[in-house]
Every structure is written in structure tokens, then in C-alpha cells.
Design brief:
heterodimer, A: about 375 residues, alpha/beta, D-Maltodextrin-Binding Protein, domain 2, 2 domains, 7-stranded mixed beta sheet, 3-stranded parallel beta sheet, globular, B: about 280 residues, mainly alpha, MetI-like fold, 13 helices, about 75% helix
């Protein structure tokens, strides 16, 4: 692997990484100086023809297509993958598991690797859309080093369909200058939305979390599909709706701008906002809420399967995975990767919350993805 | 005959295009609309009217669309007509081209980017911050139906301006001179000559804007903060979120039917105002 053409040498990169680890520079500075921000612009790699083609001992083709979530990778790692294998990574970004599933269901997505969340995997298996993984092609996946809590959902009936990428939670991001302190319950969140924070609260445009947290408010399971419990959640949501700032999963701009003071928020987004604006905090709902794990998987109809295995294996190497974690701020379940991460990050209460805070959280259940009642509830909420 | 064969040959590309790009997708939508949602989402074959019977579940979305589309069209018309009149009749030829370019250029930029620009203008640090300096506190503009209306009128204004401009540009000035010679006051000449003769442009522009507004989903999602829900948004959710393709298809068919009825009314209006179809140019 040579880095001669990279915007920053490997040595300088490691120095910057250490400065970041010591906390002497901000993440934003780190991304800027190392060129990772700019690399993102080239990441799409719209013109594969311009890339040098190289003779390889093991030819995996010249490209691999990855369907993933926003702000979820370190672009420099894709460049390194190209340097190592000759295949460039084309990245498609999605907003929800439902949208990803719809594209794969329609057929011909052209994706080689995608990143389903725990609760979506059973549906992919049931619909026969996901490839059982040949683990001999992913030597960097060492099951023993992964926390089973965030790795188990990739295996169904003894067959491994997904290897763990990251895990995280869905909590509350709050602007403490405006809220006057920590907001750490869904009770405070939904009641405050109709009262002192009128017009300043955002919920996801996403049935799983928006309905789930409204259920948790009433003390029900995050995953409930019980019609009576759903009816109570619906009443709460429709009651709150006129007081909401927005129903959107793109909450960072409004939070940073100061227009929104509170939002449902994923771990990494919470960390990213907190780093840039310390007044924005992140807390888990003490009544419960979502904990999730994402997996690397391969669609049945992937056009470049060899490249897919190579990319997954590359991204799971602890060194690469550590760089990924530094870039996106989501926790990793791999003890080998965590051994490479700075102590400060491992002790970060946003990224790695205390076990007591995690215990009331629930993993999303497969049934929520396909339950027609939850889908219709969401439509009524949005059109109310 | 060679001539008819040549004609057939020339029409073949258009015929194939329409068959592949219009009829085929429409047929798929129609077939899907009688099917069912499979247990894991998507489409399962079947023959049922259940999806159509379920249409009232999206009543609010249709109501919102059928309210905002006419309101948006009329608002765009009220702003576009004086502008087109000014450009076609009042402005000196020296400035005309430049002003026309100024109307078109924003249209070359993606509507997505232009709508995002409005997020900053209408957001707390934009216009509301300016209003605060003159003592108007806590004005909320973004994520309201008003913001959606602003975005829609702004986004589709050029589509309204140009047909009206073309109609006014063609206007025979001698008619107005004759009216003036005969003692008609200018406001009456406008009502009796200019306005009726520009009606084809008004109808074309209105129809273009109206049809696009009926299918709009981007602007309400961006400037309405997801709280303003149109049929377009219902369709996006049905196909990409709840993956109820059968019901989504029925909603799409219903939207097409509403459009056809609207266009039918439109054709009648065109006839009533005495413009030939060629003049109107759309249908």
C-alpha cells in the first residue's frame, strides 16, 4: 500500500490522529487537515475509467457498490481499499431500512454490500434476498472478539447473513442553553413539546423510532403492535403534532441553527453535534427506547460478489475499523478494534453509555418493519 | 404508398417511446392497484378492489394537495402576470433579454438546492432574525404551510411567466392603438383586448404549474418540515417506507384520474376562451 498520492502522508495522518486522540484538536480540524472531508467529494468515483487499472494476483474487478447510511464511513478508507485492490467503492446513501428493502425487493439494485439493521435481517432472509456469508472469505471477522449482544442478529438459524458493523442507540439530543438542563425521558420530551418547548421539538420521519418512543412514553414496549397500545401512541403523536418543529430524520441543521431545541437522535449524530457545540447534549430515555446494531451483508443478486467480500473483510480489519469509528462516532462491538481506540473515546458517555442506561433499551423487532398498522399510523400522523 | 410508409417509419420512434415509457408503466401501476400487499411488503398478485376501497385512508393527503395546488397556481399567476406583462410590453428591448435571462437562470439550478436556500432564508437566523431587529419577536416561518406556498410559487414561477410572456409578446399592438383612437381608457383596453388575447398563455402556464403541483412532494418535505403531507408524500411513503405497493398504485391511479378530470375541464375552458389547441400548445 502506498500513500504517495494521498493528500496527506501516512506519517502525518498518524500524527494528526494522535493529536485528535489526545483531544488537542477537534474532529472538524482533524477531518479538514487530513483531507477526509474532501475525499468524501471524490468518493462517488463517478468515472471509474480514469482510475488506473492494475494487474492483481486476485482480481476482484474494478468496482464495488456499497449501500449504507449517512455520515457512516471514513472516506480515506475507501481510497486505501482502491490502492490495495484496484476496486473503487461507489457509495449510495439511504434514509431508512424500509427504503433499502424496497430497492432490493424491486430487484436490480446493483449493490454488492449493504448495511441492514438488526431487525431488518429476518425479513431479508424470509424474502430470500440476502446471501449466506462464506466466512472463509472474511478472515478479519473473528466472532470471539465481538460482543454477542451486537453480533447475534446477523445469524439466523445458524447461518451467518451479516457481520457486525456498529451499534448505537436512539436517544434525545437537547440544547441545554434552551432546555435548561438534561432531558433524559420520553415523558419530558413529549410533554415539553406541548408546553415549554412548543414549536422546538423534532421527531424522526421514521415509524420505528417515532411510534416506538411514543409507546415507551406510555410504558409499553418499543416494538408493540398491539392495536390498543398503538392507538394510545397515535393519540399522543397526533396531539403533539401541531406543536412539533418538524417530522424529519435530518435534524442536525435545525439543531445546529438553534431553530430546534430537542430531537430524537442517533448516537453518532449526537456525538457529532456535541463535539462542535458542547451545549448540545445527548441522553437516553430512562423509560427505554431503541438500541440497535448494523451489519455488513451481501444481496443475493450482487453483481460483484468477490469485491463485496474483499470490501467487508477490509473494513473489518481492526486498524481500518478504528479509523471508521474515529470518523463517524458510532461504537464498535469488536474488542480488537476497541483496543486501538483512544481511552477518551471509550469512556465517552455518549458513545459508550453506562450499562444501566442501556438496560431498559430494546432492539427493534422484525415485526415492526412489516406491520401494516404501524405504517398506516405513521401516515395518519403525518397527514393529520 | 411510400409517403404513408415514410410517415409510419417516422412515427415509430415516438410510438415505441410511448409504449415503453408511458403505457407499460401505467399498465404495471394499474395491475398492481388490484393486487395485494405481501406479508413482508411489496406486491402480491391478486384481484381485489380492497385498495380502492381503502382510498379514504389517504383523504387528508388528497385534500391537502387539492387545496394547495389551486392556491399555489393562483398565487403564481397573480405574481407572474404583472411580471410577464412588464417584460413583454413595458420593458425596453435593450433590457428585455437580460431580464428574461434573470427569470430563467434560477430555473437551471436544481429545485432541491433552491429549496434548501429557502431553509436558511426562512429559518430562525434568516428573515425572522431581521424582523426581530424591528421588534417583531418569535416569528416562525419555516416548516409552515406558508413556507410551502412560498417555495412552490418561487419554484414554479418561470413556468407561469413564460407562456404568458409569449402570449403577450405576440399581441398585435395595433389593436390597442385602435382602441385608444376610439377613446377606450387603457384599463378597459386591457380587460377587453390584452387579457382575453393572453388567456391561452394564462391557461397553459396554469396547467403546467397545476399538474406539477399535484405531484409535488419535495417542497412540502423540505420547507414543510414533514408536517405538510401531499399525495406525492403519501406515494413516496407507500412505495419506500411501508412498501404497500398495491395501495400505492391505487393512490397513483386515483391521482391520475383526478388529473384527467382536471385536464378535461381545462380543455373546455380553452374552447370557451376561443383559443385553438395549437395556440395553447400543451395538449
Amino acid at each position: 500500500m502506498t500513500n504517495d498520492n494521498a493528500p496527506i502522508s501516512r506519517k502525518a495522518f498518524m500524527e494528526e490522529l494522535r493529536r485528535y486522540q489526545k483531544g488537542s484538536v477537534t474532529r472538524r480540524h482533524f477531518l479538514g487537515v487530513t483531507g477526509l472531508g474532501t475525499a468524501a467529494a471524490v468518493m462517488g468515483g463517478a468515472m471509474p475509467g480514469l482510475l488506473p487499472s492494475r494487474a492483481r494476483a486476485q482480481d476482484i474487478g474494478d468496482r464495488v457498490v456499497l449501500a449504507t447510511w449517512p455520515n457512516y464511513h471514513d472516506a480515506a478508507n475507501f481510497d486505501a481499499f482502491t490502492d490495495e485492490t484496484g476496486a473503487y467503492t461507489q457509495v449510495n446513501v439511504f434514509g431508512s431500512n424500509e427504503e433499502m428493502l424496497a430497492k432490493i425487493q424491486a430487484g436490480g439494485s446493483g449493490w454488492d454490500v449493504f448495511v441492514p439493521t438488526n431487525y431488518a435481517i429476518p425479513t431479508y432472509v424470509e424474502a430470500d434476498l440476502i446471501e449466506p456469508l462464506d466466512l472463509s472469505k472474511i478472515p478479519n471477522f473473528d466472532p470471539a472478539s465481538f460482543d454477542p449482544r451486537f453480533a447475534d442478529a446477523g445469524t439466523i438459524d445458524g447461518v451467518v447473513y451479516g457481520v457486525p458493523k456498529n451499534w448505537g442507540t436512539t436517544g434525545i439530543a437537547f440544547n441545554s442553553d434552551k432546555t435548561g438542563g438534561v432531558v433524559d425521558s420520553w415523558k419530558a420530551f413529549f410533554d415539553g413539546a406541548r408546553d415549554k418547548w412548543d414549536g422546538r421539538v423534532m421527531v424522526h420521519d421514521y415509524q420505528l423510532t417515532t411510534i416506538g418512543n411514543a409507546l415507551v412514553y406510555h410504558g409499553f414496549s418499543f416494538n408493540s403492535v398491539d392495536p390498543e397500545e398503538l392507538a394510545k401512541a397515535e393519540k399522543l403523536l397526533i396531539d403533539v403534532k401541531p406543536h412539533l418543529y418538524a417530522i424529519s430524520s435530518d435534524y442536525q441543521p435545525a439543531m445546529r441553527n438553534g431553530d430546534a431545541w430537542l430531537t430524537m437522535c442517533w448516537t453518532g449524530d449526537g456525538k457529532q453535534m456535541n463535539v462542535d457545540m458542547p451545549e448540545i447534549g445527548f441522553a437516553l430515555g430512562k423509560e427505554g427506547g431503541e438500541i440497535w446494531s448494523d451489519y455488513y451483508a451481501i444481496p443475493k443478486d450482487a453483481p460483484h460478489k468477490e469485491a463485496a467480500y474483499a470490501l467487508i473483510n477490509f473494513l473489518l480489519s481492526p486498524e481500518v475499523n478504528a479509523k471508521e469509528a474515529l470518523a463517524h462516532g458510532y461504537p464498535v462491538a469488536d474488542s480488537r478494534t476497541n483496543a486501538l481506540l483512544p481511552e477518551k473515546l471509550l469512556n465517552d458517555p455518549i458513545i459508550y453509555p453506562a450499562a444501566e442506561a442501556l438496560s431498559p433499551l430494546e432492539f427493534g423487532a422484525a415485526v415492526t418493519l412489516t406491520d401494516p398498522n404501524r405504517a398506516e399510523l405513521m401516515a395518519r400522523f403525518k397527514s393529520a | 404508398m411510400t409517403q404513408s410508409r415514410a410517415r409510419a417509419l417516422l412515427l415509430t420512434p415516438a410510438g415505441l417511446w410511448y409504449a415503453a415509457m408511458l403505457l407499460l408503466p401505467l399498465a404495471v401501476v394499474l395491475i398492481f392497484s388490484f393486487g395485494e400487499r405481501s406479508a413482508i411488503g411489496g406486491y402480491a398478485p391478486g384481484f381485489t378492489f380492497e385498495q380502492y376501497a381503502n382510498l379514504p385512508a389517504r383523504f387528508a393527503a388528497f385534500r391537502n394537495t387539492l387545496t394547495l395546488a389551486p392556491v399555489g397556481t393562483i398565487a403564481a399567476l397573480l405574481i407572474a402576470y404583472p411580471l410577464a406583462y412588464f417584460l413583454a410590453v413595458k420593458v425596453s428591448p435593450k433590457w428585455k433579454t437580460m431580464l428574461l435571462v434573470l427569470v430563467i437562470v434560477p430555473f437551471w439550478t436544481s429545485i432541491l438546492i433552491r429549496s434548501y436556500a429557502w431553509i436558511f432564508l426562512l429559518g430562525g437566523k434568516g428573515i425572522p432574525a431581521l424582523l426581530e431587529t424591528i421588534g417583531l419577536d418569535d416569528v416562525r416561518l419555516l416548516n409552515t404551510p406558508f413556507a410551502v406556498l412560498v417555495g412552490i410559487v418561487y419554484g414554479y414561477l418561470p413556468l407561469m411567466v413564460f407562456p404568458i410572456y409569449v402570449a403577450l409578446e405576440k399581441l398585435d399592438k395595433r389593436l390597442l392603438e385602435a382602441a385608444a383612437d376610439l377613446g377606450t381608457p387603457p384599463w378597459r383596453a386591457f380587460l377587453q383586448i390584452t387579457l382575453p388575447l393572453s388567456m391561452p398563455g394564462v391557461l397553459t402556464g396554469s396547467m403546467l404549474v397545476f399538474i406539477l403541483l399535484m405531484g409535488e412532494f419535495l417542497i412540502p418535505a423540505i420547507l414543510g418540515g414533514g408536517k405538510v403531507f401531499f399525495v406525492g408524500n403519501a406515494l413516496v411513503d407507500l412505495f419506500l417506507q411501508s412498501r404497500n405497493w398495491a395501495f400505492g398504485s391505487a393512490v397513483a391511479v386515483a391521482l391520475v384520474v383526478i388529473m384527467l378530470i382536471t385536464i378535461g375541464i381545462y380543455s373546455r375552458l380553452v374552447k370557451r376562451f376561443g383559443a385553438s389547441r395549437d395556440d395553447v400548445g400543451l395538449m
